[in-house]
Task: structure prediction
Amino acid sequence: MDRHYMPNEPTMEFETVTTGLRFPEGPIAMPDGSVLVVEIQGKTLTRVLPGGKKEVVAELGGGPNGAAIGPDGRCYVCNNGGLNWEQVGDRTLPGLAADDYTHGWIDVVDLATGKSDVLYDRCGDIALRGPNDIVFDRHGGFWFTDVGKVFRNTRDRGGVFYARTDGSFIKRKIFPLETANGIGISPNDDILYVAESHSGRLWAFDLLGPGEIHRGSGPVPWERGRLVAGMSAYSHFDSLAVEASGNVCVANIPHAITVISPEGAIVEQVATPDLLTTNICFGGADLMTAFITLSTTGQLVKTRWPRAGLPLHWLNDRSGRA
Result:
């Protein structure tokens, strides 16, 4: 048995916030009680009001995949460039790269007007392939994963980038990292967590400063990260959120949110009612309301979480701290 595994599967009740979303991801619990989500299949950034009403904020094209609020109050969106889709019964499943796919990019959206602009679509001579998830640091820069793109016979190698919001700087900081997906920062701003999808692994990278990773922190010289946890059963890690305690909550396909301590112990696995449960974020005054995207069935649900989520820079309590 995996040394990290500890069976603890609490039963939680989920309340449906809204339905009819076209493969939702990237939830952001806003201070006004609304929740922003991207609709990957719908190609939009959408606001879900507390009563469940949906409003399209921006039509983005491609495949908006992850989102975060920046220091200027705008929403920064990872766009994977588009996917083909398959309908299996009442479930929508993502497929290979879209027929018209060329590359991915980073969108920035003015929430008041819905105006969007492409901030980055390449890093030097490296075209962005499948930007996936994003997190801001306390310095106002952002880390984002690029999961790459899957074609019929080939697959891109993934990695992690760091960029500034004014369009002046972008650099690939971790490469290769196969199918880099969820990303988050520890409470002390000193560890970057990255979920590796197809292997079901969670990695940690020591941060030295804005956009700077300690090289050689892994067990062998060419590894820059530490393996926090891997699963003993089939697991496909998707996006993640960090608790105030430092635990990392990873959307774990199939059917779960897996909570992992910084030391690598499995704190608990929360069963969810959707095969592709893709993301979690925390909201409410005490940050103990978990909003979860159930993507194949197009739902945003919420539940009372047993621990508080970590305040996000530029959105919650930690906004603007230097």
User: Anything to note?
Assistant: DSSP finds no helices and 29 strands in the chain.
